[in-house]
Fold these 2 entries.
Entry 1:
Amino acid sequence: MPPDTPALPVPPAPRRAFGPYRVCFVCLGNICRSPMADVLLRAELAEAGLAELVEVDSAGTGDWHVGGPMDRRARAELGRHGYDGSAHRSRQFQPSWFADRDLVLAMDRANLADLREMAPDAEAGGPRLLLFRSFDPALAGDDPYDGQVPDPYGGPPDDYAAAFGLVQAAVRGLAGQLAGLLEAPAAPARGDDPLEPPEGAGPEGIPLRGAPPRQRLGGR
Ligand code: 4NP
């Protein structure tokens, strides 16, 4: 790990004592980046045996694509890597969701600023609302994308491939952090001596009318 790479954030403790941990990915249209992250994190958690412990969803700050499928190019990129994005339908993030998501992860700084605008004060600067790529173990101070997943919408296939790679790296880091949080050692069974360790133990094309211009982020 490069010396200027900060430690990964520790996901905050769950809001509720029971039920799954809830993670929501947020981008602008909810048809490219955040659905990719949604599909990839579900797959990673399933592989780690953590699917039941974490509920994953995604949304956009904009409403242009609500009810529609994933961008065909994003879906194709997922397909190239063996993932299926066909079930996705776009949704718009609602401010009320802050109260029941444990972690809300923004794809870029504009998404983060929009989310902070709609968040209750206590959430806006808190540990439950973060830039998604803060979970990328390879994220360095000189990152060409300034810690963001750049918006690939309407760009060439390479932009979708780049977005996939960035999303995949951060999903892997996030899954590891969630595992660390949620796979805590079980409480001792009744009758066990808590002080005595068990034997053997060591301690989707054309921009729609009304849509904002595409964001061009650095590095392309
Ligand atoms: P996403 O990409 O935020 O990664 O889903 C976009 C999709 C649609 C638009 C912008 C970005 N749009 O302006 O319609």
Entry 2:
Amino acid sequence: MTAPIYKRVLLKLSGEALMGGRDYGLDNGTVRAIAEDIKGVVALGVEVCVVVGGGNIFRGVAGASSGMERAQADSMGMLATVMNALAMQSALERIDVPTRVQSAIPMSSVCEPFIRRRAERHMEKGRVVVFAAGSGNPFFTTDTAAALRAAEMRCDALFKGTQVDGVYSADPRKNPNAERYTTLTYLDMLARDLAVMDAAAISLARENKLPIIVFNIHEPGAFTAVMQGEGRFTTVV
Ligand code: UDP
């Protein structure tokens, strides 16, 4: 077994990643497959935490465009991420991966509140910590929350699971000539407006010298392979 390249990482999963082939909500098979991949990484001895998005259920901007106050709509978006976090916890626990959910919006009868030191202790004990409710603040995204939590938890890298195996010059699903980058700088990402993470998240990662690894979350075992330096991915440094 090849040694892992990082000791402690944060995995960002968008709501879309949990949707599989569906138009809305969660696809059980997809959530299960991702849980298996996380289990593989935990088995390498890597400490793993996860930030889940909520776009498969509700996005604040969509609510605001239909006339709702943005801050209110964002609260709904953050609650959507809690549902995804609970689904991910169930899938992980079903395959015997001890998991804790911590929410940035306290809801003590459902999960723990976000407490950085406690989250760190869970990870030291080999538990996967799933961070829910983003940053707890409206007008932010779960990408930014992922960069924030990764910095707070002193992670070695932020893994962004996407639909393709890295960052391309154009959408490879639409443009066959799109070129895949092996390495990029944070400034390249910002300057070329590559739609992988939002600018606030990239800036936060840059300030904290946090590498971003972009890989295909739907390729079975890709998270584990990339953790061993294998397979296809893009590193942003
Ligand atoms: N959200 C928020 N603050 C945060 C993170 C998320 O208000 O710190 C809300 C926002 O409305 C967002 C929704 O939660 O649209 C779902 O998160 P996101 O769109 O980032 O999910 P993803 O695209 O990763 O599925």
